[in-house]
Amino acid sequence: MSSEVFNKQNLKRHALVAKQLAKWILKNIFNVFILLYFLAIWRIPGIRSIFYREVIALQNIFSSTRFYWQFLDSQYRSDLSVYQEYVAENSYDVVYGRQVDFLVSLERVIRENDFDSIVAEQKHEELTWVMSTGRCGVDAIDRYFKMSEAHNSVHREFYKDEKYYEFKSTWTTKSYELSKIFYNNATDAEIKSIITGFLERRMKTIRRRGEKRWVFCEHVDTVWLPIILRIFPSSKIVFLFKNPHDVITSYMSKQLYTSAQEMPLSKSQDKLEFKTLFGLMCWFHTYINMYINIHCDLIEDDRRILRINGLDLFRKDPGTHSKLNDFMSMQTPLEKYNEHFSGRYNSQLRRAELSQFPRKENWPDSYHELLNLFSSQIDHNIRH
Questions:
Q1: Max alpha carbon distance in the chain (Å)?
Q2: Which of 100, 158, 180, 314 can bridge 154 by disulfide, Cβ–Cβ 3.0-4.6 Å?
């Protein structure tokens, strides 16, 4: 390429950056009024959410310039040793052993307390729980289950009665309980409190079942997976997972989990310092999938577990259709299945023009290194 052509392309790129930056500045003049409003009603998570969107928008404007990626690359490279140390201390085998030890405490607490009086006759009902990190096709599979006359599937609306989503990330809301289980540092009294709180909320809904079988497509239920599998011994688990690059790009682009910075990441309850949300999402995708997979592996009856790659739902794969129908005792024909999974879901979360997180081909090398560091812990352990 001649230097003249290169300079013209470079000039055009920087002109586009300048134009987009001007739009961003103009847009943020109006956001000042929004900021003042949220300050007036003291909604700090709302403020964080708004400015996270603008930071992502700004990031995508500058992603057209080479210096921006060089800056991020050097930033993550300088911190890579910190992440390597964390991963070494929290490898798959380490977390597996920690969960085995937790189950000893959990089963002791269940034996010593009368939780059967809370669950009553619902103890042996066939409840199905969809477990995932999110961004794996949960909305689509929920709508598929809703097509069945034998099932009552819920997604999102289940928690509205409890005002569960009011300016909060559901993961952040329950991160304390997840930390206690994940790091196995809960006392028997704390385990009892976690179980009791979970059952008090959940049983209100389960008792409204009627003649249909409940399917809970709620990401936050993942926190209580080991409790669910033992308190409800007839429960079944659909474990949805997906390629980490696609999931994390979707996290970032759709501005999800914006208050997940409060997720406890170390045994001492201190936060592992991530300078951008990308690093935190690498942690989230890896360790939530690891947590689900370990507890699915620890169940002796494989008939209670169905693992599905979210991409297979949309590939019109007859094998996935057959496995899903058999597992759920559904009779939905293949043609109807294919038609359903040809649609697009979560349309209410469409990305704004400038809030799209860059595609993986445009990530700096350190982003790939960081994600590979974390995801290497689960790549060979999740059974497809």
A1: 80
A2: 158
Tens-place pLDDT, residues 31-76: 666 666 666 665 544 454 555 556 656 666 665 566 665 666 676 7
User: Do the Cβ atoms of 212 and 150 come closer than 8 Å?
Assistant: yes
DSSP of 192-222: HHHHHHHHHHHHHHHTT-TTSEEEE--GGGG
Would you state the structure tokens that stand for residue 359, as one six-digit string?
Answer: 């595609």
- Residue 114 and residue 121: Cα distance in Å, rounded? 14
Tokens of 356: 């799209």
Give the residue from 356, 381, 323 showing the smallest Cα distance to 53: 356
Position of tokens 């049983």?
203
| Helix H or strand E segment including 106 | helix 92-112
Tokens 């170390």 correspond to: 266
- Nearest to residue 292, comparing CAs of 203, 229, 373, 247? 229
Reduced 3-state DSSP string for 279-319: HHHHHHHHHHHHHHHHHHHCCCCHHHEEEEEHHHHCCCCHH
Q: What is the pTM of this model?
A: 0.79
Nearest to 246 by CA among 127, 107, 131, 132: 132
Instruction: Give the residue among 76, 91, 111, 41 at the shortest CA–CA distance from 377.
Output: 91
CA gap 298, 106 in Å, rounded: 14
Share of the chain above pLDDT 90, in %: 40
Reported as a single tens digit per residue, the pLDDT across 175-229 is 678 888 998 989 999 999 999 988 988 888 888 767 789 999 988 788 899 999 9
For the beta carbon of residue 137, count every other beta carbon within 10 angstroms. Answer: 24
Residue 248 corresponds to which tokens in the numbers above? 């994390």
Could you tell me what percentage of the chain is helix, strand and coil, using 3-state DSSP and rounding each to the nearest 5? 65, 5, 30
Q: Domain ranges for the chain, please list them.
A: 84-375
Who contacts 270 (Cβ-Cβ below 8 Å, separation ≥6)?
264
pLDDT confidence of residue 205: 82
Chain CA centroid to CA 182, Å: 16
